[in-house]
Design goal:
two-stranded parallel sheet, alpha/beta, binds S-adenosylmethionine, Rossmann fold
Length: about 325
């Protein structure tokens, strides 16, 4: 058993929309060699373009996502035999398992005590052997641990809440990642998109920012905590670490200004921007911070704008059921 890149629960991931994105590129006859994915989340969109032989710039402001790009998408060296041995050790040995930061804080909430103790012990052990591993090997094992911690969590898929029932022991089993080889190694960043935008040149920029007050760091604080392993104090019912500097401007009242500033600073020929109405707006936090009218207004200051949505004839493969939610892509060819 191995993990695939898309085997992650991540709100707003665009795995099912790749053919929709491709259809817009084809319809518009877009030719490009450098693709930039500034709010890359899982990295599925970047991976898609890497696999098509494009040069890719991939970025997200969360460290856990940076870890995934290093593991899945970079071209760093790794020794498969050494990784297999290490995964086997973590899956079968018990001599390294002791009480730790993770079991002290997350037992009987997101995980059973047994599972939390093992997750934290693997994390601790991995840090202790870091100098003996290549960069890529370290990130691959860490990514595998994060995927496992996501898979077995006592949640509906994010860490804004855990399920009311007592977590059962699920077992912590790491799996190797199903890694692919790409023509070019991507440039990988963990930056604020607005800062990075000023420093890069690309032919084609894909923008998929958050659109409402729900902060990604709040959804995925536990994975970020496990990835960083700085062992901060956690507070509140959902056991979050301090995370002020990871809050996104795109989930605040200044989202529109942030998007305008970002788009103005891009050096590119084409922009593709995702928008959706996934959330049923039954609470203030779910109402989109940037309206469709704002997006069109901002993009029109830069060039010609076309709107494509999932009801559009280009997306009729019938494989994906979008029920009530509509995915929209705004395509802008810059002047
Ligand atoms: C809608 S998700 C992107 C999903 C992605 N396209 C995928 O397929 O997985 C938005 C992402 O933007 C990131 N983000 C939020 N604010 C950011 C900022 N100012 N700079 C960079 N990334 C940011 C979040 O961490 C989140 O991963």
């Amino acid at each position: 058993m191995t993990y695939n890149l898309q085997n992650r629960r991540y709100i707003g991931n665009k795995f099912k929309l790749l053919s929709f994105i491709d259809s817009v590129i084809e319809t518009e006859g877009v030719e490009f060699s450098i693709f930039a994915d500034l709010f890359a989340g899982t990295g599925v969109v970047s991976e898609h373009f890497l696999s098509l032989g494009k040069k890719v710039i991939v970025n997200d402001n969360l460290y856990s996502n940076f870890v995934f790009y290093q593991a899945w998408l970079s071209n760093g060296d790794f020794d498969q035999t050494r990784l297999n041995k290490l995964i086997h050790y973590y899956n079968t040995a018990t001599d390294f398992i002791i009480d730790n930061y993770f079991s002290d804080n997350f037992s009987n909430t997101y995980y059973s005590y047994i599972d939390a103790k093992k997750i934290g012990s693997i994390r601790e052990h991995l840090e202790s052997i870091r100098p003996t591993l290549t960069h890529r090997e370290y990130y691959i094992i860490l990514a595998s641990l994060l995927y496992t911690a996501d898979k077995i969590a006592n949640t509906v898929g994010h860490f804004e809440a855990f399920l009311g029932r007592q977590p059962i022991i699920k077992g912590v089993e790491l799996q190797m990642l199903n890694l692919q080889k790409y023509k070019y190694a991507p440039d990988i960043y963990q930056k604020d998109a607005n800062v990075l935008a000023k420093d890069i040149n690309a032919d084609f920029v894909y923008l998929d920012p958050p659109y409402n007050a729900r902060q990604y760091i709040n959804f995925y604080h536990l994975l970020e905590n496990l990835a960083e392993w700085k062992k901060p104090s956690v507070i509140g019912k959902t056991l979050k670490m301090p995370r002020k500097e990871k809050m996104s401007q795109y989930s605040t009242a200044s989202a529109k200004e942030a998007l305008f500033e970002l788009i103005k600073s891009l050096k590119t020929k084409y922009i593709l921007l995702s928008y959706n109405n996934t959330y049923v707006a039954n609470s203030g936090a779910s109402i989109n911070k940037i309206t469709e009218q704002d997006i069109v207004y901002i993009l029109k200051t830069m060039g010609n704008v076309k709107k494509f949505d999932t009801n559009y004839r280009f997306f009729n493969s019938g494989k994906t059921n979008f029920d009530n939610h509509k995915e929209i892509l705004y395509f802008c060819k810059l002047k």
